[in-house]
Every structure is written in structure tokens, then in C-alpha cells.
């Protein structure tokens, strides 16, 4: 980040967080610098849930740095942001640092389920830090990836996208799901790589295979 610890926006942010920490024992903050004293990672959080969504907004701030957002759903079905991290890169080590900072903030209590987007580096880092936590891919990103698939047969098949969404959310039995998935033949998509991959990984995204896992109404990262 552009400022050193000694001046500028960085010191203002750290001073603000220190002040908040003094007044709120539930607030946890942590930061890391490089050898030049420049801030590279900043994390803060003030509550916890058994189910959380882990998302990154890409460079939509004046520093052009990724902002990692931790969110959950309250008992009113409202999305609550309870933790954030501003980072200078998106390496697996950085995401491990963010995940470990989160774990420290929560007293080493692992969440039961984490909803993550399709970022491979983020997914691997989270799996490393939370190996026993159920990892569910974001339903919104899955649907978006289907729409943006390089296969022209897939992107032109709006009826398939509707059926794929139904496959994600419907409370099918195992046999009903398998029977429903035969719709790929109807849409002429047998052998399409993305479709085959989704079926192979169905236990991670289809509600049918997640009956025994509490996910607190969360199935997307945003």
C-alpha cells in the first residue's frame, strides 16, 4: 500500500482501529508490513458465526487493492459483514494469513461451513487453514460461470441454465437428482467439459447432497 506506517492514510486507519479496539473488546485487528515498513495486509473482525461467506471485491477502492469480506446471515435473513481484510496481493500465502488471522480472532473456533467463490488460490488457502470445514462454492458464481462458459452450446442454452439453477436449489432425493440431471441429454450437452465437471463435483454444490449440513441460509458470497 502506498503509505508507510508512520504517516498518511495507513496511520489514520490503524489509529482508528486501535481506538475502536480500546472501546470494544470483541474487535480484533491485525496487520503486517514489508521490509520497507509499508502496510501489506490489514485484518479486522468483531463477531463470528458457524457459517460464513468469504468473498473478495476486486480493486474497487482508491488503492486498487483487493478487499476480502467475511459475512454471515442473521436470524432476520439479513446479510451482516463482520470482518474484512485489505491485502496487497492474492497469493496463497496472503490468503492463508487472512484465514489464520480470522481463526485467531475467533479463538481458534473453526466454522462449520464456508461459502467461497471460484478463486482457486483462495479455495486452497481456506482448505489448508480450515481442513475439517465444509466448503461450498458460491451458487451465484456457479451460475455465472455456466453463463460465461467458453462452450457456445452451453451459453446459448438458456433452458439449461434454468434447469441447472433448479438442480442447485431443489430438495431432490439422490435418485431424483440423478434422474433430473438427465436433462443434459435433452439440452444436447452430453460431453461438455464444464457440465461433466459440475456433475463430478455435485456433492459440494447441490442441495440434495447437503441435507445434513447447516448453512444458515447462506449459499452465495454476496
Report on the structure:
By secondary structure, the protein is of the alpha/beta class. The chain folds into 2 domains: 130 residues, Nucleotidyltransferase, domain 5 (2-Layer Sandwich), CATH 3.30.420; 72 residues, no CATH class. A 7-stranded mixed beta sheet has the order 1-2-5-4-3-6-7, sandwiched between helices. A hairpin with a 5-residue loop joins β1 and β2. The N terminus is likely disordered. InterPro entries: MULE_transposase_dom.
Number of strands: 7
Class based on secondary structure composition and strand pairing: alpha/beta
Unreliable runs: 1-6
Relative helix content: 25-40%
CATH fold group of the largest domain: Nucleotidyltransferase, domain 5
- Biggest sheet, in brief? 7 strands, mixed
Number of domains: 2
CATH structural class of the largest domain: Alpha Beta
Give the radius of gyration.
Answer: 20 Å
Shape: elongated
Tell me, rounded to a whole number, the average pLDDT.
78
Note the gap between the termini: 26 Å
SSE string, helices as H and strands as E: HEEEEEHEHEHHHHHHH
> Please, how many helices?
10
Strand content: 15-25%
CATH level-two architecture of the largest domain: 2-Layer Sandwich
Strand order of the largest sheet: 1-2-5-4-3-6-7
Protein name: Protein FAR-RED IMPAIRED RESPONSE 1
InterPro entries: MULE_transposase_dom
Organism: Cajanus cajan
Pfam families: MULE
Amino acid at each position: 500500500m502506498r503509505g508507510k506506517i508512520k504517516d498518511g492514510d495507513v496511520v489514520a486507519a490503524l489509529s482508528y482501529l486501535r481506538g475502536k479496539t480500546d472501546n470494544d473488546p470483541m474487535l480484533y485487528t491485525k496487520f503486517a508490513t514489508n521490509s520497507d515498513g509499508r502496510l501489506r495486509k490489514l485484518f479486522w473482525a468483531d463477531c463470528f458465526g458457524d457459517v460464513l461467506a468469504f468473498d473478495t471485491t476486486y480493486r474497487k477502492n482508491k488503492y486498487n487493492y483487493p478487499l476480502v469480506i467475511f459475512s454471515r446471515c442473521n436470524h432476520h435473513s439479513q446479510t451482516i459483514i463482520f470482518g474484512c481484510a485489505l491485502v496487497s496481493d492474492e497469493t496463497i500465502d496472503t490468503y492463508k494469513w487472512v484465514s489464520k488471522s480470522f481463526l485467531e480472532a475467533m479463538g481458534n473456533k473453526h466454522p462449520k461451513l464456508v461459502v467461497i467463490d471460484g478463486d482457486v488460490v483462495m479455495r486452497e488457502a481456506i482448505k489448508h487453514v480450515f481442513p475439517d470445514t465444509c466448503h461450498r462454492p458460491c451458487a451465484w458464481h456457479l451460475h455465472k460461470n455456466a453463463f460465461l462458459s467458453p462452450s457456445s452450446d452451453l451459453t446459448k442454452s438458456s433452458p439449461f441454465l434454468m434447469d441447472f439453477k433448479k438442480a442447485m436449489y431443489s430438495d431432490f432425493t439422490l435418485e431424483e437428482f440423478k434422474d433430473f440431471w438427465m436433462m443434459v441429454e435433452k439440452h444436447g450437452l452430453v460431453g461438455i467439459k464444464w457440465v461433466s465437471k459440475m456433475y463430478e463435483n455435485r456433492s459440494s454444490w447441490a442441495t440434495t447432497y447437503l441435507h445434513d449440513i447447516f448453512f444458515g441460509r447462506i449459499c452465495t458470497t454476496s
